[in-house]
Specification:
The chain has 194 residues and is an alpha+beta fold. The chain is built from 3 helices and 12 strands, in the order H-E-E-H-E-E-E-E-E-H-E-E-E-E-E.
Length: 194
C-alpha cells in the first residue's frame, strides 16, 4: 500500500515564518531544502560566477552577450506550487525588469538544480515534472557526486537531453552557448581565466 501524500496548500506554505522558509511546496508536500554541502555550494557558486559576468547585463557584446537576469535561490510560483531552484534565469527580452517579490510570479527561462543525496529524486522527478508542466524552456542538473552536467530542453513530450558532460569537458551549453564552460570548474577546478 502506498503511503498517503500530504495535501498542503499555499496558505500552509506562507504560514512558515519567513526567516525559516527554506522550503518548497510541490505536489501538495512541503519539504525543507537540504543544507548545502561544500560540494553543492561550490558547484552553485562556480556556475553563478561563470554565467553572471557574461549574461547578467543588458544584451549586446561579443564576449559578454548579456540579455539575462541570473539569480540564486529565488522562490518562484509555478502552477500554484513554490519551488526554489539553486540557480535560475530570465531572458531580459521577455522580462525587461529584474524579477522581484516573494515569490517571483514570472516563469524563468532556465533553471539549474545541484543534486544533494537527500533531494536527488525530487530534483530529477518531481521538480522536473513541475518545470516541464510550467513550460520552463531549459533545465540543467549538476551532480557533484558524479561530476556531471546534464542539459535539457523543453519539448511537448517532456524534456529532451541535449548535452551530457563530465569533469574535463568544455562545453557550450544552451541557452548560454555563447560562452565555453569548463565543466570541471563546477567541481573545484580553477576557473578558465586564471
Amino acid at each position: 500500500m502506498a503511503a498517503a501524500r500530504s495535501t498542503h496548500k499555499i496558505d500552509d506554505f506562507w504560514a512558515i515564518p519567513e526567516d525559516d522558509r527554506f522550503h518548497e511546496l510541490i505536489g501538495g508536500v512541503i519539504t525543507r531544502k537540504a543544507s548545502p554541502s561544500g560540494e553543492h555550494a561550490d558547484a552553485q557558486a562556480a556556475l553563478l560566477a561563470a554565467l553572471r559576468g557574461s549574461f547578467h547585463r543588458s544584451a549586446g557584446g561579443i564576449d559578454k552577450p548579456g540579455g539575462w537576469w541570473v539569480l540564486l535561490e529565488v522562490e518562484i510560483l509555478l502552477d500554484g506550487e513554490i519551488a526554489r531552484p539553486d540557480v535560475l534565469g530570465w531572458r531580459r527580452d521577455r522580462c525587461p525588469s529584474r524579477p522581484t517579490g516573494t515569490p517571483v510570479k514570472q516563469r524563468p527561462d532556465w533553471v539549474c538544480e545541484v543534486l544533494s543525496p537527500s533531494n536527488a529524486s525530487r530534483d530529477t522527478v518531481e521538480k522536473l515534472r513541475l518545470y516541464h508542466r510550467s513550460g520552463i524552456p531549459h533545465y540543467w542538473i549538476i551532480d557533484p557526486d558524479d561530476a556531471t552536467l546534464t542539459v535539457m530542453r523543453w519539448s511537448s513530450g517532456g524534456y529532451s537531453n541535449v548535452l551530457a558532460a563530465e569533469h574535463g569537458d568544455r562545453v557550450r551549453a544552451e541557452p548560454f552557448q555563447q560562452i565555453e564552460l569548463a565543466v570541471g570548474t563546477l567541481f573545484g577546478d580553477e576557473p578558465m581565466d586564471l
